[in-house]
């Protein structure tokens, strides 16, 4: 059985508290957008697609339980709550994309004079609910496209890959993006080995990806972040596959801190570097990676481990949660639900994809 980070049925939302994993599997309920915002901010739920889905579902819960007197009141409430949810973490664009879609949808529904207030509310709730299944479907397509492409580049022979951070069932509605590609390779018996990086300082790799890989019985080894170069020089690695929090118009990509250095190391060793993400991770409004807002996280994520101080007292820290990988280092391509694109064709492909609705 695959891990389920998000459990939802109308009126009830629960998430697996990722702060407690891997030792404790505990679901917590999210009853409104305040609780949704706090769960995202504290990283009880994390990963670009999961943040968007949990944010929107926390609003669906609040909408289900609340009565409105007018469509204007409903619209003001939805817009305010969506803006609030987007503010929880700034780098991943998926929640901003979902918020924009929610806002234009409510306007469209209000403009439809045939619809009553309750029907408008219900349709909006249904729209947010549909994100769960849609994300799993998209991830499976990403997995298939990515696995086919990588195997095509390797004469259909089993491959060894490296991945970074957590991009699996815990970061999405299920299956995963980069980890979805790895899962798909494994399902086809074409995955010889996967190395997952520890992903300091929050340890998404050691705690979450390693947990998913063990759970799925996938051949895997954990490496510290500073072992990636040694791993590539002492093993034949066929691909590095990572996820993304925002891919901008020129193909520059923000992802978990450490992705950039992994891409540099991969280029040096001639290992193709792939980014796997859905179209909701594209941000065509930003031209280059220099303009992506990078979230800075609290210092204690670096200085302490489970509440125990591991750094010298009084040292200051710089703790950016993400970095930007320039498009030219994404040498393998960007794996989407529509296929695999080279970063230089991304701008054209994004307009084509976004134009297709
Ligand atoms: C499918 S998840 C893609 C990205 O969101 C993932 O690689 C990542 O950087 C997650 O960062 P996090 O800080 O854990 O939310």
From TrEMBL:
PANTHER family tied to this protein: METHYLTHIORIBOSE-1-PHOSPHATE ISOMERASE
Keywords: Amino-acid biosynthesis, Cytoplasm, Isomerase, Methionine biosynthesis, Nucleus
MF term (GO), any: S-methyl-5-thioribose-1-phosphate isomerase activity
An example Gene Ontology biological process: L-methionine salvage from methylthioadenosine
Site for Transition state stabilizer, residues: 165
Record-listed E.C. numbers: 5.3.1.23
Species this protein is from: Biomphalaria pfeifferi (Bloodfluke planorb)
Family statement drawn from the similarity comment of this UniProt entry: Belongs to the eIF-2B alpha/beta/delta subunits family. MtnA subfamily.
Name of the protein in question: Methylthioribose-1-phosphate isomerase
Primary location recorded for the protein, binned into one broad class: cytoplasm
Substrates-to-products reaction catalysed: 5-(methylsulfanyl)-alpha-D-ribose 1-phosphate = 5-(methylsulfanyl)-D-ribulose 1-phosphate
Annotated function: Catalyzes the interconversion of methylthioribose-1-phosphate (MTR-1-P) into methylthioribulose-1-phosphate (MTRu-1-P).
GO CC, alphabetical: cytoplasm; nucleus
Pathway: Amino-acid biosynthesis; L-methionine biosynthesis via salvage pathway; L-methionine from S-methyl-5-thio-alpha-D-ribose 1-phosphate: step 1/6
Active site: 245
InterPro entries, per the entry: IF-2B-related, IF-M1Pi, IF_2B-like_C, Initiation_fac_2B_a/b/d, M1Pi_N, NagB/RpiA_transferase-like
A Pfam family matched in the record: IF-2B
UniProt enzyme class: isomerase
Protein localization: Cytoplasm; Nucleus
């Amino acid at each position: 059985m695959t891990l389920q980070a998000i459990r939802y049925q109308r009126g009830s939302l629960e998430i697996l508290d990722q702060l407690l994993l891997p030792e404790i599997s505990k679901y917590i309920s999210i009853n409104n957008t305040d609780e949704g915002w706090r769960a995202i901010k504290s990283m009880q739920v994390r990963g670009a697609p999961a943040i968007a889905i949990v944010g929107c579902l926390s609003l669906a819960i609040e909408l289900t339980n609340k009565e409105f007197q007018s469509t204007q009141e409903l619209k003001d409430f939805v817009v305010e709550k969506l803006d609030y949810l987007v503010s929880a973490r700034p780098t991943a664009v998926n929640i901003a994309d979902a918020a924009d879609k929610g806002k234009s949808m409510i306007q469209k529904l209000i403009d439809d004079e045939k619809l009553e207030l309750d029907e408008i509310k219900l349709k909006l709730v249904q729209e947010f609910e549909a994100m769960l299944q849609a994300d799993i479907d998209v991830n499976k397509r990403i997995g298939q496209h990515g696995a086919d492409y990588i195997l095509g580049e390797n004469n259909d022979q089993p491959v060894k890959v490296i991945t970074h951070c957590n991009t699996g069932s815990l970061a999405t509605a299920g299956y995963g993006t980069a980890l979805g590609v790895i899962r798909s390779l494994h399902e086809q018996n074409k995955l010889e080995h996967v190395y997952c990086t520890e992903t300091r300082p929050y340890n998404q790799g050691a705690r979450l990806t390693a947990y998913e890989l063990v759970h799925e019985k996938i051949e895997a080894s954990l490496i510290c972040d500073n072992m990636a170069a040694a791993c590539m020089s002492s093993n034949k690695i066929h691909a590095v596959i990572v996820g993304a929090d925002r891919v901008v118009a020129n193909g520059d990509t923000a992802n978990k801190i450490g992705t950039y250095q992994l891409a540099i190391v991969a280029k040096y060793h001639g290992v193709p570097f792939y980014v796997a993400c859905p179209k909701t991770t594209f941000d065509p409004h930003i031209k280059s990676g220099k303009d992506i807002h990078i979230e800075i996280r609290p210092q204690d994520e670096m200085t302490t481990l489970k509440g125990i101080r591991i750094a010298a007292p009084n040292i200051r820290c710089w703790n950016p949660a993400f970095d930007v990988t320039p498009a030219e280092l994404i040498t393998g391509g960007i794996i989407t639900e529509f296929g695999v694109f080279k970063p230089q064709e991304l701008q054209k492909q994004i307009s084509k994809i976004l134009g297709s609705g």
